[in-house]
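WARN no homologs supplied; continuing
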Amino acid sequence: MKKILTIISKVVLALAVIAFALSMIIPGITKDALDASYMVLVFANVSMIICATVGSILTAANSDTARRVGHGMIIAAFVAGLSIALMLVDKAADGATLSPFAAVTDDEEKTVSSTSAIIMIVASALLAVYYIFQFVVLILNKASREAGSPYEDSKIIRVKEWKQLLDEGIITKEEYEEKRVSILGIKQKADKHE
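OK structure emitted
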């Protein structure tokens, strides 16, 4: 189940990145002249793509801090994408672009801005779905670790490795007992009486 969710989440992330790219490519292809509003859109989308991609890479890191930063980057990309898309919809409805230097009077340009905004909303929604899938996988991983058998515990595995060394005659029984006690954190009887 976790593997399937992980694969689906990676596909959803790829679709979100493609949608962010499309939202800046479509206006670039269909507009007659590239103005400052298009440059703002390109800069915002490239930033969101980088933020989402780096965030997804960091969520797979071994460090808790790196994972938290990764989740924050994904959330930031989602919020930024959604806010820019909603701003585009609002500006297209008002008849203006993102640029303070130009006003949109042509219906075709309003349609291009609206199309770009809709694609960005879809990309932001896909990013939110990706994050939800990652969160579910995280919860499933924690649940499986808590419900896991004691034989999967790292301390038990290390003790078994030392036991194997004892069985093979590589270490003495005393060395094994000393290592087992230190790994498991067991206090000796002499320590308990003090």
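The two ends are 51 Å apart (CA to CA).
OK
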